[in-house]
Amino acid sequence: MPTTLPLKKKDFVSDQDVRWCPGCGDYAILAAIQKTMPTLGLPKEKFMFVSGIGCSSRFPYYMNTYGFHTIHGRAPALATGIKCTNPDLSVWLITGDGDGLSIGGNHLLHVLRRNLDINILLFNNRIYGLTKGQYSPTSEVGKVTKSTPLGSLDAPVNPLRFALASEATFVARTYDTDVKHMSQIFTEAASHKGVSFIEILQNCVIFNDGAFEEQVAKKVRKEKLVYLEHGKPMTYGAAGNHGVKLNGFELEAASWDEGGEVPSDVLVHDQTAENSTLAYLLTQFDDPLPVGVFRKVERPTYDDGINAQVELAKSKKPSDLAALYRSGANTWSVS
Amino acid sequence: MSTQTPAQELDQVTVMFAGDSGDGMQLTGTQFTTTSAIIGNDVSTFPDFPAEIRAPAGTLPGVSGFQVHFGSVNIRTPGDSPDVLVAMNPAALKVNLSQLEDGATILVNEDAFTKAGLKKAGYEENPLENGSLGAYRVIKIPLTTLNREALKDVELDSGAVDRCKNLFALGVMFWLYDRPLEPTLEWLAKKFGKKPILVEANSKALKTGYYYAETAEVFTTHYKVKAATHLSAGEYRQVSGNEALCLGLVTASHKAGIELFYGSYPITPASDVLHHLSRMKHFNVKTFQAEDEIAAVCSAIGAAYAGSLGITGTSGPGVALKGEAIGLAVMTELPLVIVNVQRAGPSTGMPTKTEQADLLQALFGRNGESPCAVVAPATPTDCFTMAMEAVRLALTHMVPVFILSDGYLANGAEPWKMPDPDELPSISVTYAAAGEGEFEGYKHDPETLGRPWATPGTPGLEHRIGGLEKWDVTGHISYDPDNHHHMTVLREAKIQRMQVPDAVVDGDQDGDLLVISWGSTFGAVTSAVEEFRGSSDAKVGHVHLRYLNPFPKNLEAVLGRFKTVLVPELNMGQLCMLLRAKFLVDAVSFPKVKGRPFQVTELVDRFRQAVKG
Fold first, then answer.
1. Cα–Cα 20 to 30 A to A212, which of A230, B111, B187, B291?
2. How far is CA A6 from CA A3, A11, A49, A122, B239, in A?
3. Least Cα separation, residue A282 to chain B (angstroms)
4. What confidence category does residue B2 fall into, taking pLDDT thresholds of 50, 70 and 90?
């Protein structure tokens, strides 16, 4: 018997105690997911949460759905096997900046370029939490941590730029203190046929507190974030009189009189643009920091392709073992 | 075939075709083998090729060889030492000469023994002229010239003409051993059907070679090898170990009525498994060429979790990379088949050379107490049976199962009596269905100790699994000390509880010497034991193990019935170490790690030494 719809948030809450540190950004992300899932119109048994290792990867234990807490960095590979053989599932992959971009960087690249129809949530707190405070591949240069007392040396990777370069078909950014925005992005990701990659700026209250405070704090948010909306001009600010425009090969912030008309050179967001150049420029911009859907394009999915090939083969040839044994070989009889 | 030359009858012959890796020696050997099988001989082959796709022409590393042993008697190995070496160039002669015994025949392409050709092979003087081959019967044929002459009217460039000379050599060999040309002519017509000129050229080269041998009287005699009589009635084909393995896996999934998912990353000598399975999609087979070895095994585990038959295949270096993920399959108690087509190691080792040194890796190569079942096919055709067995064990007990094949089995071929699919055993699979109350994901079957296979998408069975230790029954995370001990014991018990056939002792059932072998050494050890028993008064028995974990239940009792236990292995004594550790028996190792299989003679010598004490 399939679960009766509609479902409520509580249907998605498992009986396990949540064990993140008090004040961790993960709580809000969990709440946003549990709030969004019932709105997607799918029965509970169709949801599959897959994760790797790290603080964020505990996530599946707290969802009352199917869940697989796998090994470090490998969740995309597990998810590939699951989605290819069980394509009706709504698969959600939970990873972090270490799990996804350090140990699992290779798998992330390939799952994105294959366009597997799953949703990837990368919790980016720019630090290693579960191993207690080493720098991560998204930490800024010079980061002083337990393993880098004189500061880290390596340049960080930008998750969205990584995703775009890997030919991801849905690329978005949201942040942990805005359940409404997260929920909106999750809903859009769920409706996207293909791989969805979402970077969630997430605060680690213990080892990297305030990592994104300068941009996402409630009191600065309106001036420091630009909310990308498809077909709308990229404006921001409490009075809506700031915007983003193109100057040569760079983006720059522009301002005009309060209440004035939006200048014509303020960019209008087109998330469906086939050419990803503008989306790429947006990932390089940080004042204001763009959030929302950067890119959403259609491309055949890997799971559809692999299943279509099997169906095509089945339609052309019967599954006759005796014939298989004889195919492509010289046979002879011994009497 | 009528001929003036007298024909002598032989019961078995070994031929080695050797040449440059671009000379088409694998093809030549395969055609010779197929034809021999078609006329009823028993056959066994051993292709020996370099890892380099095209090493510099004429050099020693570029030599590619194909050995075939055929006969009217039971043929279990590709033969210790070739009776005939076909050497297409000086390098091929140099590389293979040490394999030959005095009196062997060497057929050389005289045209290739030029100053430049000799130099590339590192010969300071021409071995055909300095008397160094006095112990052998050397037949010098100007193959290149004769082939060019034969094809002078065919409109092909000189390179393409020269590439037909392997067919000329094959024609010569067909005459020498009285084999028909038709199967090869038919094959050429099929293979080059779209390029009639190539059909014409190759067919002409083959026929001219044959008639040249017949009329030029280069041989004083030629030979007949009658059809084998021990092969039971039925329909046969040639099958390599990798082919048989794939057919076995597909048969098992078909019998179990579930989809097969194969996740793999190309690696020698396992890549052919991926190639073959990718052409069997009409049997509900999905193949996934992953980005690396880790992704390959993880995708298979994902597929297994989702309710499919998850299989991954690789060679030893790949298994090293897959270790952590295999541990995940152990912990999550999911069925998984891991194919290891072993090759010489460690590290990159010798990719195209055979070895069976990954037994301990299969058993212990993971962190923590992480038991897996291990089976090992004995012959190329046995890869079919053991693949089915691996699937049965994995699905029945919800555990990872290793199949330890190797390069020798994978590329070697022998006749396979094709089974009637309806007569093969069925495999049953039961997925969990929702019942009363909360689903208990780790409630183990009292008999098999398997846990319920609850596939995502099934209403009412929502549950979470992962690599963390679980409570028995509920499957929730547990750090409880007693539970961890209990679960560790349970995971091992699953393996030990498996039903595997008892070990069968060939030869004497008790006495002086018990020879224990496993995997691809079956043919050589069986032949050696047979030969030794015929020439010695010692009481000698032989057990060949196809189940390495768990061992057959009667093995300990068998070991106790012999004075000496000798374990020949293509490693430094891994099975021997296990037998000593597990059964406190004073087993003696006979190790060999040369990238080559055992020879019957070296085994017989060692047996003789063993019974002398």
1. A230
2. 9, 10, 20, 28, 56
3. 29
4. very low
Angle CA B123–B124–B127, to nearest 5 = 60
pLDDT in tens, B53-95: 778 889 999 999 999 999 999 999 999 999 999 999 999 999 9
Tokens linked to A149: 């007392």
Please indicate whether, in this complex, the C-beta atoms of A89 and B457 are within 8 angstroms of each other. Answer: yes
To test the contact with chain B by mutation, choose from A30, A61, A68, A92 the residue with the greatest count of B C-beta atoms within 10 A, namely A68
The kind and range of the H/E element at B397 are: helix B382-397
Angle subtended at Cα B541 by Cα B535 and Cα B547, rounded to the nearest 5 degrees? 140
Q: Looking at the complex, does the CB of residue B418 fall below 8 Å from at least one CB of chain A?
A: yes
Q: Which residues pair with B568 in a beta bridge?
A: B590
Q: Angle between the A75-85 and B293-305 helix axes, to the nearest 10 degrees?
A: 50
What are the E-state strand segments in B491-569? 505-507, 511-518, 540-545, 547-549, 562-569
Name the residue of chain A whose CA is nearest to B285's CA: A310
- A85/B292 CB distance under 8 A: no
C-alpha triplet B435, B439, B441: angle, nearest 5°: 125
- Answer yes or no: do B462 and A44 touch at CB < 8 A: yes
A45 to B457: CB separation less than 8 angstroms, yes or no: yes
Place of tokens 């024909």: B7
Q: What is the average pLDDT across B252-258?
A: 98
Asked if B25 and B67 touch (Cβ cutoff 8 Å), the reply is no
For helices B316-331 and B293-305, the axis angle rounded to 10 degrees is 30
The answer for residues whose C-beta is within 8 angstroms of residue B189's C-beta and 6 or more apart is B199, B203
Residue A190 sits at the vertex; the CA angle it makes with A186 and A193, to the nearest 5 degrees, is 140
Omega of the bond leading into B351 within 30 degrees of 0 (cis):
no
Local confidence band at A2 (pLDDT 50, 70, 90 cut-offs): low
Q: What is the pLDDT confidence band of residue B1, given thresholds at 50, 70 and 90?
A: very low
Cite the DSSP H helix spans in B25-130: 25-38, 90-96, 115-120
Chain-chain contact of B286 with A85 (C-beta, under 8 angstroms): yes
The encoded tokens of residue B201 equal 């050229």
Of the candidates B248, B276, B499, the one whose C-alpha atom is nearest the C-alpha of residue B382 is B248
**Pairing outcome for strands B42-48 and B63-71:** antiparallel
Q: Across-strand partners of B13? A: B70
Please report which helix (H) or strand (E) contains residue A183, including its range: helix A179-191
Q: How many residues comprise chain A?
A: 335
Q: How far apart are CA B180 and CA B174, in angstroms?
A: 7
Q: Determine, for residues B233 and A3 on separate chains, whether the beta-carbon distance falls below 8 Å.
A: no
- Coil, strand or helix at B116: helix
pLDDT for A50-88, tens place per residue? 999 999 999 999 999 999 999 999 999 999 999 999 999
Q: Which H, E and C letters describe B284-325, residue by residue?
A: CEEEEECCCHHHHHHHHHHHHHCCCEEEEEECHHHHHHHHHH
Count the neighbouring beta carbons within 10 Å of the beta carbon of residue B194. 7
Closest-CA distance, A53 to chain B, in angstroms, reads 10
Contact (Cβ atoms closer than 8 angstroms) between residue B336 and residue B394: yes
Nearest C-alpha neighbor of A255 from the set A238, A236, A240, A242: A242
Token pair 């055949």 is found at A300
User: Could A330 and B308 be called an inter-chain contact, meaning their C-beta atoms sit closer than 8 Å?
Assistant: no
Q: How far is A165 from chain B (nearest CA, A)?
A: 17
Residue B346, preceding peptide bond in cis (omega within 30° of 0): yes
Within 10 angstroms of residue B90's Cβ, the number of other Cβ atoms is: 26
Distance from CA of B281 to the nearest CA of A (A): 5
Nearest by CB to B261, which of A74, A81, A326?
A81
